[in-house]
Structures are given as C-alpha cells and as structure tokens.
Amino acid sequence: MENVFIDGTKIEANANKYTFVWKKAVNKFYEKLKIKVNDFWHSFNENNSTEFNDIYEIEKHLEKEILDRNIEFVYGKGVRKTQQQRDYETVTSYIAKENEYSMHLKICGNRNSYSKTDKDATFMRMKEDYMKNGQLKPAYNLQIGVNSEYIVGLDLFPNPTDVRTLLPFLSVLESRGLKFKNIVADAGYEIEENYEYLFNNNYTPYIKSQNYEKQKTRKFKQDISRVENMSFNEETDTYTCANNRELEFRHVSKQKNKSGYILEKKVYGCTNCAGCPLAEKCKGTPHNKKLYVADNFLRFRKQSQENIATEKGIILRMNRSIQVEGAFGVLKQNMNFKRFKYRERSKTKVEVLLFAIGYNLRKYVHKKYRNVKACNFMN
C-alpha cells in the first residue's frame, strides 16, 4: 500500500467504423436550423391573420386546418401539393431535425463526439486503425493502477487524454479503501489541479514534467524568452531578461477550466522593449514582452521533480515503465485484448474487469511457480 503506478491506454470499442457524431458539427447545423425556423415562423405569421409564438403552435394549427378541410396529401411526379401540405411537411421536418440535434447534444454531454453504435464510446486517435493512416476510432480510455505487479484498480473514461482522469481514478481507489502513499505517473498527468489535489491529500507525487527531456537540451537552455532562463528578484517581484531589462508585475489573470478549477497566472510586462537587439529571439510580437507565470504550478512541479530525482524516485520511475506498461503489454498482446466484445460502458467495464482478474491470477501462478522452482533448486 505504498506505491501505485498509474497509466492509461485506449481500447477500441465494439462500434461500426463510420457512426461518428461530432458535437462541433451538430452545433453548426443546429444554428443554421434555428435561422431557417425563424425565417419560416416570420413568413408564416405574415401570411396569416393569427400570430403564433413558435413552430409547435404552427404545427397544431396546420393539423387542425388539414382535418377540417379534409385535405389529402399527394406524392410523386405530376401532382401539385397544397400550401397546407407544403407548410406542414416543412414544419414537421424542422421539428424532427431539432429533436435529433437536441438528442445528439444530450448524448455528447461534455464530450466532443460519440458513436451511434456504442453511445458511451468517444472517438479517439489510436496508434493504428482500419486504413493504417491515423484516422479516429471509437474507443475507451482504460486507466489502471498497478501495485507489486498486480492490477489493484481500473476504470474507463471518455477522455482522449489522461490529464483529466487522475482525480476521478484516485476517487475510485479511495472508494475501495485503497489509499496509497506514492503516486507514480508519466508526464501526461501533469497539471496544477492534479498537483494541488495530491499535495493537499497527503499523497507524494512522482510525476515527470512535460518538458523533462526538453529542458536538458541546449536549445531550451539558450531560449531567452522562457521564464526558466530569466533571473527573479523576490523583493521587487520582477524578472530580468537577457538584455537586463526588468519585467514588472502587472496583474493576476484567472482562468477556469472544464472541471471548474481556477488557474491563476501572474502577468509580468516590460515597460519598453523598443530598440532591444534581442527582441526577435525574445518575443514574436511588436508589443512589449509579457510573461505569464503560474507560481503554484511551478512550485508543485519543482517539488515533484525533486522527488523523481532522488534515488527512490529513479527506482520508482523505472518500475512504472516495467509494471504498468508491462501489464498493458500482457493484456493487449498476450491476452489479445485490443477491442471490446460488448457495448455500453457498464458491460465493457465488466469485460475489462474479467481480463484484469485473469491477469492477476496468471501473475500469481507464475510467481508461485517460480518460488517453488527456486526452493527445489536450493534443496
């Protein structure tokens, strides 16, 4: 109960290839439909003595008028439709489309897409696809936690990336009474919200920064535009650039993300960058240089980097790549678990749980067999 190694992988859903619904496209067509409905509504009111509030009232009025006049609908070539039939077909088609778009948006929720075959599946970019050219496929983001080579927890998420899955996944572990001390994960989980939760709830994070490899390069160290390569004066709360010009504190910028977390950034600016010989390397705009510094995030990142730089942190990082990536390798390659056989999240979760139980039993048997073999050899 000391270390848990967390990572995620994408498992393809049992859905047809071209059943995608994109939230952005639905919103675009929905707006166009609203314009058509509004134009039809105004035109219909102008041609009638009675004023209607919406197209639903128009639909009821047309239904009553068609029944009262006993109007028969006609179809096919060489026939002439009445104005009532044309209006009724138009208004019913608009209502049907409006209901369809509303249903799509309701199913999508906070997601950007879903599959008509498996409505819980989200389209994600996979490492391989049917046509081998990087197309999107319906899938689930499988998150697992590994301790001592055993899978101790898992859950399925609609998120294409891992960054928003850490906190709900830890909630799943905590609901089962599993409170680990050290959280070991890769750079895909590094955001301020995750750091703050871990530090405030007595977790010790061993999370590699997103620029961990990049900050070792010469290009990174010689980039004078980065805040990491500027000197900071705590007393005056100013940064000094490569041309010895001070960037003074201006204000605090606040931004709320999708989960409701408020990210604060301190904004620093130079009073005058005119005539600076390093302007091209330092900034890409004609305006004065500005810095956006997230103090809390940088403080959390520094602490996490100190953790992974210790001897224990190095061992944990090595174990993470061995244990959790090894578990995915066994599940996807040895057990051939690359695509779900069932649909809907409730059924797919049961399916992956059965695979995890099989993985743990297999691991236990192998370990027991190795111990028995070692004892026999010693004897």
Topology:
Blueprint: E1 3-12, E2 20-22, H1 23-46, H2 55-69, H3 83-108, E3 113-115, E4 122-125, E5 136-147, E6 150-157, H4 166-175, E7 182-185, H5 192-200, E8 204-207, H6 218-221, E9 231-233, E10 238-240, E11 246-256, E12 262-270, H7 279-282, E13 290-293, H8 295-309, H9 311-334, H10 345-378
Task: Provide a compact summary of the structure.
The protein is α+β, with helices and mostly antiparallel strands. 44% of the residues lie in helices and 21% in strands. The two termini are 33 Å apart.
What's the SSE pattern? Answer: EEHHHEEEEHEHEHEEEEHEHHH
Gyration radius, in Å? 30 Å
Q: Which shape, going by the Cα principal axes?
A: flat
In total, the number of strands is: 13
Overall residue-averaged pLDDT value? 90
Residue windows where pLDDT falls under 50 for at least 5 positions: none
The largest β sheet comes out as:
6 strands, mixed
DSSP strand (E) fraction?
15-25%
* Number of H/I helices: 10
**N- and C-termini, Cα separation:** 33 Å
- What percentage of residues falls in helices of 4 or more residues? 40-55%
How is this structure best described in words?
The protein is of the alpha+beta class and 379 residues long. Helices cover 44% and strands 21% of the residues. The protein contains ten helices and 13 strands. The chain has helices at residues 23-46, 55-69, 83-108, 166-175, 192-200, 218-221, 279-282, 295-309, 311-334, 345-378, and strands at residues 3-12, 20-22, 113-115, 122-125, 136-147, 150-157, 182-185, 204-207, 231-233, 238-240, 246-256, 262-270, 290-293. Strands 1, 4, 5, 6, 7 and 8 form a six-stranded mixed β-sheet that branches. Strands 9-10-11-12-13 form a five-stranded antiparallel β-sheet. Strands 2-3 form a two-stranded antiparallel ribbon. The longest helix has 34 residues, at 345-378. The model has no long low-confidence stretch (mean pLDDT 90).
